[in-house]
Specification:
heterodimer, A: 146 residues, alpha+beta, five-stranded antiparallel beta sheet, 10 strands, 22% helix, B: 166 residues, elongated
Chain lengths: 146, 166
């Protein structure tokens, strides 16, 4: 992949122009990463591609080699791996709560201690997610209570 | 697309084995210590009071087997209340209290079934209750206070963090 920059003070705004022979998975991934900077995530649902606002995402879950993106009303699928999404979304308030789940801090309604030092997380839509022991400790640290 | 609404940590067999071994060892150690402490004062009277001390000087095979049965039952009760598979009560304090109450009920059955003390003796049962009830009450109180404090602390920290992000 060739990467070139045209840094010129006369350019009115930052513009990304991708030139490619076909829309390969690699190019799709690149586009997805660029869109995260624009607070958007490329997802699919029933074969259709959507640009999802990061603010709408409650949590993401990896299951059977697929990554599902949950909003209040729908479930989408992402081409990216969970660890890639974790890297891309960490600056937007997303963090890991278990080996397979990433969630958005601003959509948490309440937290409750659970057995074995785990944390039961209630999301704004009423769904409950368990933060496993290791990640629960990280969450406590993140909240400044450890 | 199937939506999953919870992740349950799997309890391993080793956890169950650890719980059973711990309960079994505790019973053997406590019974042996009690036997050694009280035997100089009670002599052969011990064997009349409890089947645990039927053989002066050491625990009989029957008693050890009974302790093992009780330890297994304790392990099963712990699994029922703590594994998140059978009992799904959200409050940790409630779970701990119910678990202790169930273990004490199982112990009462063991006392009656194995003749650990005379089943007809009101004083003995009263002593058992005097030991058991405060144990349940204290465990509930401690668990409830700790849980409430931790929940309040976490939710306050969460609100602050969410405000910071906004």
């Amino acid at each position: 992949m060739k990467i070139s920059f045209d840094i010129n003070p006369e350019n009115p705004e930052t513009e990304i122009h991708v030139t490619c022979p076909a829309l390969t998975p690699e190019v799709e991934k690149l586009m997805s990463m660029i869109r995260v900077l624009d607070s958007k995530l490329t997802v699919k649902k029933d074969g259709e591609v959507f640009l999802l606002d990061l603010g709408e995402i409650l949590y993401l879950e990896a299951m059977e080699r697929k990554c599902f993106v949950y909003t209040a009303n729908a479930v989408y699928e992402s081409e990216a791996r969970l660890y890639e999404l974790e890297q891309q979304l960490s600056a937007s308030g997303f963090f890991r709560v278990s080996k397979s789940t990433l969630l958005c801090l601003k959509h948490i309604k309440s937290l409750r201690t659970d057995l074995n030092r785990r944390i039961r997380i209630t999301m704004n839509n009423g769904e409950q997610i368990i933060a496993s022991r290791m990640y629960a400790d990280e969450l406590r640290e993140r909240l400044g209570i450890k | 697309m199937e939506k999953r609404t919870g992740i349950i940590d799997k309890k391993s067999i080793s956890d169950f084995a650890y719980c059973v071994c711990l309960a079994f060892t505790m019973q053997c150690v406590v019974a042996t210590i009690v036997m050694f402490i009280t035997s100089p004062f009670t002599a052969e009277e011990q064997s009349r009071v409890s089947s645990i001390y039927a053989t002066p000087g050491f625990l009989s095979k029957e008693t050890i087997l009974q302790f093992l049965i009780v330890a297994l039952v304790t392990g099963v009760i712990r699994h029922i209340f703590m594994s998140d598979r059978i009992v799904k009560i959200r409050s940790v304090a409630a779970r701990i209290t119910l678990m202790f109450a169930s273990i004490i009920a199982a112990l009462a059955v063991a006392v009656w079934r194995f003749g650990w003390f005379r089943a007809g003796s009101v004083a003995a049962w009263l002593g058992f209750c005097v030991g058991a009830i405060p144990c349940i009450a204290v465990s509930f109180f401690m668990a409830y206070k700790t849980e409430s404090k931790q929940n309040a602390q976490m939710n306050e920290a969460l609100r602050k963090k969410q405000e910071e992000k906004e």
